Amino acid sequence: MGLTLLGLFLEFLTKSKFPQPFLRPPKLDSAVTEAGKLEPMARKDRPAKKQTAASRKLNGGEKPLRGAERSAYFARREAAKVLRTVLEGDARRRAVGSIKSLVYSPSIRNKRATFALVCETLKHLPVIKDVLRATNVLNSKWKRQEELLCIIAYDILFGKESLATGDAEKLLLSRKDKLRSALVHLLEKKRVKHIKELMPQCKISDMPKPRYVRVNTLKMDVESAILELTKQYAVDKDDMVPGLLKLPPSTDLHKHPLVINGSIFMQGRASSMVAAALEPKPGWWIRAILLDPSCSGSGTAIDRLDHLLPSYAAVLDDTGNSDRLMKLAAFQKKALEHAFSFPAAERIVYSTCSIHQIENEDVVKSVLPLAASHGFQLAPVHPQWPRRGLPVLDGSQHLLRTDLVEDGEGFFIALFVRKADKRPQEYAESETCEGYRSKRFLRKKTEFVNYFFNNRFRMLLYPPFRLKKQR
């Protein structure tokens, strides 16, 4: 009986004209033989895939984009968006983010290709713009897409030539001969033989920069971190900063479990030297101050790839950026002067990631009289470090500088230490963090008790006040 009902049900499904969700149709890459079996079809007999509307739109209604062509097409558009954001922020001196942070944002899919296009286009940007102006490309309707045209022009002049996708690509490919003739004419006009001679030169060390990580000793000890990292990398201890480890250049640790769980932090050597110079003792409470105020950031320009930006020459030049630097120096001086007003402070570190004298030695020199009045004096910072402060003030040998080219970062560190006989009596050596907390708790408790009883007393004396509060 059951088999009969099942046969009737299957026959009903077979003869019905409405869609049959229970019966799977044969695959497109297969054929039904006379015996009722599915056999694979020859590749040439398979039906071609339908061209999507998006592919037709991207390619001007012709063949659909496939594989590498499609990837390159979108990489150029993504690079153009990043390039526009970078150049607009650079022109306003208010960057939305560094080149790396913009490229490695979640919205960018092809990060490697986009990053390469942005960097190489920025390197050749002055030359590319001169060539585009000479061929009158930017005077047309494409002026609004200047960044995209610069990206494509770089590919035509210095990179790939197979760009037969997209309207912008076809526009510049149709003028390829004019673009190259304009480039040759530019070289003759500037009296140079190679394109590199037209590109802005900046001093950057060719030596690869090691990867430094700092161990978070609150979660893991240094030896355990070394043991874990040596499973994949060669690890050395830094000879100057405790808890700082040195790994080979270009080591990518962004997805490493120790980085994700906060056991280690990726941090440069120069910035790690700042905290090491403070040397706070256990239990100190507002007795060690690390002052790292806003600065020009000229010492970290290479890490942020700022050397590729049009404004980089002005950043390195004190005179070309004098107004901004003077405002920053005034703020830095005010912040450092305020740090001296803390009566419990014994060690104050002043640090910037700037290479400019106006933000470094000049600020320290301007506060020396005030520091002396509070009992502070300059003290040596990492004496074994070879590069010291500029000789423009007394005690410059105690200051520390890192070189932007040699060390990869341009940092400045100054350490002020209060003399032992100038420390206030109420902040003796025996006072600890716990003692400060207990005194603070006692003061808060007294304030609460006084407030409570004063209000209860007022309510008893003045009944109208009590009724008004209840309403």
UniProtKB/TrEMBL annotation:
Keywords: Methyltransferase, RNA-binding, S-adenosyl-L-methionine, Transferase. InterPro entries: MeTrfase_RsmB-F_NOP2_dom, NSUN5_RCM1_N, RCMT, SAM-dependent_MTases_sf. S-adenosyl-L-methionine binds at residue 292. GO terms for biological process: rRNA base methylation. One of its GO terms (molecular function) is RNA binding. PROSITE patterns: SAM_MT_RSMB_NOP. Residues 36-45 have a biased composition (Basic and acidic residues). One of its GO terms (cellular component) is nucleolus. Residues 289-419 form the SAM-dependent MTase RsmB/NOP-type domain. Coiled coil: none annotated. It comes from the Eukaryota. Residues 33-64 are annotated as: Disordered. The active site is at residue 353. Belongs to the class I-like SAM-binding methyltransferase superfamily. RsmB/NOP family. This is 25S rRNA (Cytosine-C(5))-methyltransferase NSUN5 isoform X6. It comes from Coffea arabica. The gene is LOC113707295.
